[in-house]
Amino acid sequence: MKESLFINLGASNHSKYERQPEDYYATAPIAAKLLLEVEPDLNNIWECACGEGHLAKVFDEAGKLGKATDLIDRNYGTVEDFLLNKGVYHNGDIVTNPPYKYAHEFVELALSKVDDERKVCMFLKVLFLETQKRKELFIKYPPKTIYISSSRINCAKNGDFKIYNSSAIAYAWYVWVKGYKGDTIIKWIN
Question: Based on the structure, what is the number of domains in the chain?
Fold first, then answer.
């Protein structure tokens, strides 16, 4: 019973399945569409963990994509290790579903790569709100808005939505505006 509780909560260390080695779990494109509905001013988006382009293609169709990169060549975007290119600046917004095991690092590095008032949007588990280490992150860099998905949005291991077509994990878009120091607002989408 206890093990199934952790699995249903999305605790990766309690999963009965082996994690994908590069932590590649593609996000259903609906997540990008929903984000653009609530954050229509996103522009020149860098999708820095683009995988096969599930999110980036939506941003591109909307005329919002600046560039798409990923650590691994998955036949979309350019190969680039986001975490290794610490000095790279981006004149736009950064939006992605980062590898969860590096999500904290992605948030901090993305905020260092953009100008004040630019946005960093990360698609993360609702459970990302927990832990002392991330509490410190949220105090130092409070998200302006967290959009919790009121119905589940799928993330599929290796981008295979035919096998992974349902989710017990709740996700949200965490939206940081660089320089923002106010309280975080929680809203619901879909």
Answer: 1
Domain range spanning residue 117? 20-189
Query: Is position 142 within any domain?
Result: yes
* Alpha carbon distance 185, 145 (integer Å): 5
Long-range contacts of 132-138 (CB under 8 A, 24+ apart): 133/104, 134/104, 137/104, 137/107, 137/108, 138/184
Taking only the tens place, the pLDDT of each residue in 55-76 is 999 999 999 999 999 999 999 9
CATH of the domain at 90: 3.40.50.150
Asked whether residue 82 is domain-assigned, the answer is yes
- Grade residue 154 by pLDDT with cuts at 50, 70 and 90: confident
> How confident is the model at residue 3, as a pLDDT?
46
State the average pLDDT over residues 73-91: 93
Please check whether residue 148 lies inside any domain of the structure: yes
How far from the centroid of its chain's Cα atoms is residue 44's Cα? 17
